[in-house]
Design brief:
calcium ion binding; two-stranded antiparallel sheet; L-glutamate transmembrane transporter activity; calcium; two-stranded antiparallel ribbon
Length: 696
Amino acid sequence: MESGEWGKLFIRSAHARASPFDLVFDISLFSDRLLPATTDQLKSTFSRFASTECNGSRFMTAEDFVCKFLSLPVDAKLHSATVKLLARAADKDKDGLISFEDFSQFESMLRSPDALYLISFEMFKSSNTQTPQISFQDFQDVVSLTESGKLYPLQPDSDFVARYFGKDRRRRIGYLDFCELLHDFHKEQALAAFRHYDKDSCGRINVDQFCQIMFTAKRHLLNNFMVENLRKFCVRENVDYVSYPYFAAFNGLFEKMELMKRIYLNVSKGNLQTAVTKEDFLHNAQPHAQVTPLEVEILFKLCKLAHADRCVVTFQDFEHIDPDHLKRVSYIKRLMNIQAVNNPADRDAFIVALENVYRFSLGSIAGACGATVVYPIDLVKTRMQNQRTAIAIGEVMYRNSWDCFRKVIHHEGLLGLYRGLTPQLMGVAPEKAIKLTVNDFVRDKFTHDGNIPFWAEVIAGGCGGASQVMFTNPVEIVKIRLQVAGEVRNGSGSRVGLGSVLRDLGLRGLYKGASACFLRDIPFSAIYFPLYAHAKRWFADADGHNNSWSLFCSAFIAGVPAAGLCTPPDVVKTRLQVAARTGQSTYTGIVDCFKKVLREEGWRAFWKGSAARVFRSSPQFGVTLLVYELLQRTFYVDFGGTRPTGSEVPAVTTRYDHQEAENPYHFGGYKLARATFSGIETKFGLYFPKFSASAN
């Protein structure tokens, strides 16, 4: 059979296997969180599916357990041997019948951290002995049932067999030895397949034979992208024959894919968009002796399948060639997953505009959440900054921020802490949205191969800060006047409200102090956003991923220096925007305000409310950026542009939740049963025939 036909066969069978049996995800993410099934649940389920009675006790047959209960898609008539083999994992007595005790113990086994190896061991055991061991015959019987075992039979006189079972093949091995045997069987089967075609022992095979081995004995290492492009890769590289070193390195690359990712993330410092050169990759691979230059060479040649013009590797390249079962499962369940463009090159002005609208919408929600959480702190900060301490004015109203907080609650009630929140929410949505959108937009323009220089980060942040002033200033001046309204009534003796503030200010008055807003917001954002981007990398895990806690900490920490250093212009802005009371100084502009405050109150006055400002801005941006990024992950839309660094890696599509809905009788460890059996295939390469001829 030609290699192209083998490729088509594998693709077709891969599609046919797109069933719950082939579910692939990291079982360890769930096994330690599953609650054990209760005895009542197990008894009820067992009674429902057990169809055989013997000596007054009910039992499950192999077909009951595999086909009816687990719903594994195995054709019981055509492949009864596969059904019996899979059921043997739960059959302690190995008599073909599963008792309730067996059923309960298997549920517990599925929750074990080494469930894959334990279940595989039980499948290979042919008899129940006091000392759990398997013989060479047990091992050969199971391997001969696999699809690759039929093509490349295990040779009884091979050195591999002698190492584990002795030259006379009489030695029996226990569980731990079996684990090593199963682990090493990968390489042995590949070597046996290579020898099968290298009949002259010349150390090389042709491309068709290479593809045939990869599509059969090593198909668990390939995803659909590699299946479709493997022969294309060989043709493009002008490979007529594949030497054994190249064959071994090719397989070694895929077996070490997780290590390759670690090296990439070490070079890119967690930035998943960074394009890494071969020289940098090799330099960082030196501490890992198991990574060879030939494996790195093959990796970069494979990456050229995605971008033929550049000899670099990005994390997206790993997504293309990575075996599906090694990809990380999404940390967050996406409520929406839309791909706006198939290729980044397809981005046009309309897509860019849609992306900005998308960011603006999410930024509005995030900004409103952040502002609401910290609004009481903001009110205290404003009143402290507005408080004049010149001797002529008399006794100060608030001794410190805590005193201000207590007096507001005492005189104005708890709702007094939220005075002015309505205009704040009306303005903070577009304010934060436009800041986040413009910052992301400008960063995209300066980002090349996932890298952006620090000066460009500063410019992007400054642009974001400048763009928000058109929304910030009207909101700020109305909010500030309402926040201090609790301290004084208007001329008629009534409380100051939103309507009276707007009438007093007028349209031009809404932009009073706008120059001071620029003076505060531009440096704040220029400091904040670069620090936030770098803090995310510091807090990212080994995979470059930021969880919710690291996102909040990054945003909070970045806000401390940004808010603290920008307190003086914030004080000037507040003084310009607040209506002066009788006896208080009035200001004609920024310079006049600065001079009078310095002369009348001293330099310390410029740092009034700095603590409240830091404790308001830091948590506010912590909440805002956390919500903003989580919304982008939850309502995921791929516009072909730059994703926020630290977002989760695109996840393998699974039907885990769908399985639970379809199988209300799967409790405790049985929720992982189908994924575990699938793992035996994807981890160990033990593919058993399951489908009828029509399905293939």
